[in-house]
Structure formats: C-alpha cells, structure tokens
C-alpha cells in the first residue's frame, strides 16, 4: 500500500529528509510541503516537521531578537505555515515526526517556550563543529516512546542546534535528555485520542551517515512509517 509523507521545506539540507524517509521503499511517496501548496496537506498520510532557522521569538512571547547566534533574518511565513501544519496533523489524527526546529515548534505551538541560546544559558555547545555534527550521549526515560523504539535507557545522537526547549508545554512529556539537561525528545503526556507524535532534538535523517545502524536513526524511521501504515 502506498503512503504519502509530507515533509516541510527547509533551507537547511532538505534533501536529507526524503532520502532518509523513502530509502529504498517504493511504497513511500514524498511531498514537499510549502506555504504555496498547503492544500496538498490533505494528501498526506504522515508529516515530518523539518529542522532549520530559529522560530521568531514572538511566537513564544519574547521580544528579544538579538540573542547570541540569532539568525540575521527570521522566516515568519514558514513559522506560521508550520504551526498550521502541526494543528492540522492533530485535528486530523495524522502521525507527526518533529525534528530539531520541528520539535521546538511543537512545544511553541502548545504554549511552551525556548532557551534562546544554549551556551549563553551556561550549557555545553550542541552546535556543529565546522561541517560535522556534534555527537553526545542521551538518557532515555524508561517506558517512554523512545525507550520502546530502542529498548535502552542510553543512546548516542548527533546535534546541530544552538537553541533548546525552555518551559515544556503541559501537554507534552520529555522522554530524553542530554547530560547537561537539554530536552532531547518529547511525546504526548496523555496519548488518549491523540495522533502519533514524536519530537527529537537530534537529526535522525543523517545520523546513519555518521553511525550506520544507530537505532535512534533507523528505528525512528521504521516506527514512524509503521505508525502511518497502522493509521490507514
């Protein structure tokens, strides 16, 4: 059975997402979602919110746009579009995988806020080192969705971000953390009547390029696609 996965467009290495999601599976069709083709959301069986530039602070109630490592230009059109995509997925029970910026946007959409710069907040750098992603360990909450996916309370992930979740929405549950306390994963606190939702702060779409077979890349893809197929 063919399934259609919508992936929100991004200026940050978009090509990695469809390559990872589709792989060699001929039953998976990819649609790139942009503000100008929003109507194609109705064709999607699953949705991926991709990474990219920081969400404008006004969406989480902040006036500070001059924080360390802030972008020279925000993309509020994308912010508004992806907030609409998130709410569409919830209202129509469409499985959603939210990656890096995407996970942050989920928290923002549900009333949470952001640590605007991790290092300025006194934590370790989670940014890329030149052209290479950072690599670090995470601790995983036993019994959580991520634990179910890899059957372990520990894992290794890549990182390429300078922001992190601040106050977590009351609707969400953190399920993984870095050693310095950064939230690395989220899911619904109460899953009753909700769509499949997994947010990850790392980049599973390119983790396999660094560590082939790492379950925090490979198994996340498989779990998400299974959630989409089980919904049909």
The biggest sheet, with number of strands, parallel, antiparallel or mixed sense and barrel status, is: 9 strands, mixed
Strand content: 15-25%
* SSE topology string: EHEEHEHEEHEEEEEHH
CATH class: Alpha Beta
Helix content, binned percent: 25-40%
Low-confidence segments: none
Q: Span between N and C termini? A: 9 Å
Principal-axis shape: globular
**Lateral arrangement of strands in the main beta sheet:** 2-1-3-4-11-10-9-6-7
- What structural class results from the helix and strand content? alpha/beta
Number of strands: 11
What would CATH call the homologous superfamily? Class I glutamine amidotransferase (GATase) domain
CATH architectural grouping: 3-Layer(aba) Sandwich
Radius of gyration: 16 Å
The total number of structural domains is 1
Mean pLDDT: 96
**Within the CATH hierarchy, at the fold level, what is the topology?**
Rossmann fold
Summed up, the helix count is 6
Structural commentary:
This protein has one domain (about 5-230): 3-Layer(aba) Sandwich (Rossmann fold). The protein has helices at about 15-20, 75-90, 100-110, 145-150, 205-210, 215-230; strands at about 5-10, 30-35, 45-50, 95-100, 115, 135-140, 155-160, 165, 170-180, 185-190, 195-200. By secondary structure, the protein is α/β, with parallel strands linked by helices. The strands form 2 sheets. The protein has a 9-stranded mixed beta sheet, sandwiched between helices. A two-stranded antiparallel sheet has the order 5-8. The mean pLDDT is about 95.
């Amino acid at each position: 059975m063919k399934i259609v996965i919508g992936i929100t467009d991004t200026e940050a290495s978009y090509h990695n997402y469809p390559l990872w999601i589709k792989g060699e599976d001929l039953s998976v069709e990819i649609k790139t979602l942009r503000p100008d083709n929003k109507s194609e959301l109705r064709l999607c069986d699953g949705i991926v919110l991709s990474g990219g530039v920081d969400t404008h602070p006004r969406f989480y109630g902040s006036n500070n746009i001059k924080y360390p490592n802030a972008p020279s230009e925000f993309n509020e059109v994308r912010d508004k579009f992806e907030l609409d995509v998130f709410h569409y997925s919830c209202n129509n029970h469409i499985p959603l995988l939210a990656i890096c910026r995407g996970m942050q946007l989920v928290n923002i959409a549900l009333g949470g806020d952001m640590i605007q710069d991790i290092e300025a907040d006194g934590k370790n750098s989670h940014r890329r080192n030149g052209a290479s992603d950072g690599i670090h360990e995470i601790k995983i909450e036993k019994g959580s969705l991520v634990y179910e996916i890899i059957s372990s309370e520990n894992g290794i992930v890549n990182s390429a971000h300078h922001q992190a979740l601040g106050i977590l929405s009351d609707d969400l549950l953190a399920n993984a953390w870095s050693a310095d306390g950064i939230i690395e994963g989220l899911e619904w606190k109460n899953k009753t009547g909700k769509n499949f939702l997994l947010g990850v702060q790392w980049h599973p779409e390119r983790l396999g390029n660094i560590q082939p077979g790492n379950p925090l890349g490979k198994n996340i893809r498989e779990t998400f696609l299974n959630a989409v197929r089980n919904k049909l």
